[in-house]
Amino acid sequence: xxxxxxLNLITDLQKFGAAEVNACVSCGNCTAICPLADNDAMxxxxxxxxxxxxxxxxxxxxxxxxxxxGCGMCTARCPQEADPAEFMGSARRYAISHYDKSRIARTxxxxxxxxxxxxxxxxxxxxxxFAALRGEQSHTSLALFDFIPYHVIHNVGIALMVVVALFxxxxxxxxxxxxxxxxxxxxxxxxxxxxxxxxxxKALWYALGIEALGQKRYRDDCADDDPIEPLYRRRWLIxxxxxxxxxxxxxxxxxxxGMDVFGFKATGTMVPIWYPVRLLGTVSGLALMYGVSWFIVxxxxxxxxxxxxxxxxxxxxxxxxxxxxxxGFIIEAALYxxxxxxxxxxxxxxxxxxxxxxxxxxxxxxxxxxxxxxxALFFYGLAKQPA
Length: 387
Ligand code: SF4
Ligand code: SF4
What we know:
Blueprint: H1 9-15, H2 29-33, H3 45-52, H4 56-60, H5 73-77, H6 84-99, H7 104-110, H8 112-132, H9 144-147, H10 150-183, H11 187-191, H12 194-213, H13 216-220, H14 235-261, H15 276-301, H16 312-335, H17 342-361, H18 369-383
């Protein structure tokens, strides 16, 4: 098999943030210090070398790219100030853009002015769309689904999810294809017989259970946090709260929708604050807001090696999540105020518009790592087991 050399790879990666990577002399200090680099996964040095010699396909289809949690220990020990941690982050952004065939991710990462215009335009479009279709405002209680009809929100949401699912499946499918080719993984090696199935099951458990949900290596091995870093803002903690908060809100939405569909309650019915689904939503929302708020503060104040470089895409994802969470809580408070306040309706409109924008941008922003990383970790988990 012949490898294609991309002479512009380093220049291109620099647009994604890896400004200093040319300074690397391949000394290996970063690999020695990295708590996650196994003997057979010599990153970040080996990946930097791939970039320096222009091997795009080898770089973007490297599962090791996704095992790095960006702690910054390698950057702190690099004698050349080549910032290997930022290289790893930039290479992940580059990989997401490589697999996103719409080029939206690339624009958000490398053209901040155009990306900002797209983000503002999308938010304004959704807000004007829902404002144009708005209905009556009751003044006795907050009848949100009379103001923006439920079926409009439902249909727009479904249409967006279909679009997002197509882009996501395409990108993640292409990464999986490349990883499988590289490691010689076939359908029969995954599913052909009991031993293969057991191996596949273990790799799935490793990727989804131990790493994605349990954050094991992030928590135990990636000792990025200075020992004096207070627990309440350690990266693994705020990352876990954000992830679990997001999943909890997603579950609450699905359960609520299911209860409407199966007739347990009428759509938009007011429920008490202790109602289990509402309680799940409230607790999950608080966890999400806590995690996202800390991410914003740490990035804004650049508190630590990890937070030195932020791209529009990073901010877009965090800000959309934060505004969606905040407006959700304001609506929850407004629901208990009588008589209904006109501002409650407009906060609801902003909430719906921003939530739609958040969904629309999922495959193109920082959120995309939540889809790509588990796939790479699955192949990493497979490679760790005897064939
Ligand atoms: S990034 Fe720095 S520490 Fe790592 S191999 Fe290059 S020069 Fe050495
Ligand atoms: S940022 Fe941390 S996990 Fe990533 S390569 Fe550097 S030392 Fe390893």
